[in-house]
Amino acid sequence: MLDRPHPTPEAPTLDQADLAKRMSGFHFIGGRYVPAKSGKTFAVVNPATGEEVARAAEGDAADVDAAVQDAARAQKEWARMPARKRGALVHKCAAVIREHVEELARLIALETGKALRTESRVEANTVADILEFFGGLGSELKGESVPFDPKVLSVTIREPLGVVGAIIPWNVPMLLMALKVAPALVAGNTVVVKSAEEAPLAVMRICELMNRVLPAGCFNILSGFGPECGAPLVEHPKVRKVTFTGSVPVGRIVAKAAGEKLIPVTLELGGKSPMIVFADCDFEKTVAGALTSMRFTRQGQSCTAASRIYVERPIFDRFVEAMATRVDAMVMGDPLDEKTDIGTIISTDQFEKVRGFIEEGKATAGATGRACSAMPKDQALRKGLFIQPHIFTGLGQDSRLVQEEIFGPVTCIFPFDDAEEVLAEANDSEYGLAASLWTNNLKVGLDLAHRLEAGLVQINQNLVVQANLSYGGVKSSGLGKEASLEAMLEHFTHKKTIMVNMA
Ligand code: ADP
Ligand code: MG
Is residue 186 within 8 Å of residue 83, measured between CB atoms? Predict the structure, then answer.
């Protein structure tokens, strides 16, 4: 249970601006809101207005050490609790999150610019879903008996790894944090999270809410920048496992540091996911599927965004037209307005990066970039980081827009004539996270599903990550899986062998 008083209200609040201010300047360590030891803070900005909504504590190695020491102390007792009871507590956290869904949705919309109805509320509900799923898996932390010798009882047991360091990005921070924290806790580890500098608030409120149920020190969160706060977390001697979601270059840095310490690491590093559409598909369903696959409601800021769409030539023109018409009908505007489908880009850095890709695409000979969906007219949003969704045709496979992860509302569409040709193009990528196939010919679909280089292939749908289904990429998209029972067992426990000589 939490000590009171806290800077934050106990009951759910719908005043996200006030909540953001009250959380200003704090990490959450050992069951309490605590300021950064240096006293330093940095701005949290609402990307829809450009206004500063809070100051986040700027963590460094001293804060990391305090959090990890607390987590290490708490871990001893937490690991001794029966696994099923740990699960029950994590499940109970889900109930507290459910009571605060509306609050968390408004808070994440405020700091990230993600639309309330289409994204933020969905994400908050998914957090509860993930906690419920893993909360039920406590009794699945089983070992085996090994047939060694009838007179020697030989068994394996699953043990936690210790303190887990988790580093998360800003695009779906609440969901991605839950995918790491829930299985880590149920397996008997304790956790220190380093939030993304662009989105530190909603995840910290979740940490506070879960600390109303969990023993102090089991779940801690720090805000701060990558090199100053993330790196010392990875390097801390008492951190025995690192789980990271972010970019490929930072993934390599994290993996190197973990390698130096000889600790296991899980990496989820983005993608350039192909969507392959055959002429025999269910046309309307597939066009609608292209919009959700491209995650336009999240401004395309998704690792699994269908940023390369290959359409069989006979339906190519009709498909591009139908898709553009549908995207045009989407409403871009105030993230907190229920009518809004599409919100803003997260930060000015990302805004410039995405705009650079769009300019480059437009300047490419033979290419056409079609801007869809009207810009918002509201004066209050004139400084907002809005970018119109763009659909490019006529680009070559070697274009930077086709090879690099844009992480914005930009997709490239190509015609194809032949299944082998499109498979080669789809696999011609550094990434291998997800792919989707749209056809009523399951023979072709299943054949390609087997040969696509991706961690997840979906036929006639393209859902975001789901609890119970292993999620994680191949090639530069990462290392290891998340979201499933196997992921919990493989990535948050080790197997110990125990032998008893009974002769
Ligand atoms: P993005 O491009 O989405 O910002 P990053 O890989 O830059 O992805 O960031 C993902 C997370 O990794 C963020 O929480 C960021 O602060 C953190 N990070 C950045 N650099 C480092 C680093 N050198 N060591 C550890 N964490 C880092
Ligand atoms: Mg970054």
Answer: yes
